[in-house]
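Please predict the structure of the following assembly.
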Amino acid sequence: VVMQVLGGFSTQEIATEMNLTQQAVLTRLFRARGKLREICGVAAAAGDAP
Amino acid sequence: VNCEAMQLQIGADPQASNDALEAHLLACARCTAFRRETRALDGQIRRALELPLEPLRSASNVVELRRPAAESAQIATAPRREGRPRAWALAASVALAVTIGLVFWSTQSQPALATAVVEHMALEPDSWNQHAPVPQSALDLVLRRSGVRLDRATAGEVVYAYSCWFRGRYVPHLVVQTSGGPVTVLVLRDEAVTREQRFEESGYTGLLLPVQGGALAVLAREQSAIDAAALNEAAQRVLQAVDFDAPS
């Protein structure tokens, strides 16, 4: 997340840097944001407006 | 293409855009809201890094002190992995600091309620441009989720109604048409306000009103024809119309 949000790396670049598949990077980013949502007290917006 | 797949894309890269995603978002309010919220989360991450470094370093020290001694020793003596980019090691450290910083930031710097209300307005600019009455079934759905009842005849014509995520809860976000123009109402059942508060901020003028242990936020755009008296009149109507006793 840091590499993407702050570094501006694409998911492909992150995958290359971390020796992962792009799909693995996408999954990890999705999960990481999910955890950050919990930490920040933000719920998933599915089903609702913001 | 289903919402789950779209939200996986958005959650992984909220800034990304492609034809399939944009076409889906045009027809799906849920995923549109999810992207908006996820982008806002990324903004929080960036802002968290603007915190003074010292609190983050202190928090990191607390984490380190709580680590079992044997584990710390093992880490201290572990050989450095070959081929691991130093930049990534730095990024991992920053990630830890960000996580801790977010906790620190989210607990220490909750924005004032009026500011939070005004910030929420920026997320839904189209809400001010609605004119058609909201179907009763849709309004009921929004209100029921928050355990709120509204006497529509008293409140006025409701032209916009959504259940919005606001400071950790879903709250009814309504727009009521008045003779002077639209007035936005956030029904904040779980926000305590001890007295009436008037605010003017970022192009909005508004009121926070205590009601039944919760609060109402009522606001209008400053450029509208709604003056303080008209806003107060609209607020009083909503105040009489709202009931927090409905089961959620």
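Residues 50-84, 106-111 of chain B have pLDDT under 50 and may be disordered. Strands of chain B lie at 149-150, 157-166, 169-178, 181-188, 197-201, 204-211, 214-221, 242-243.
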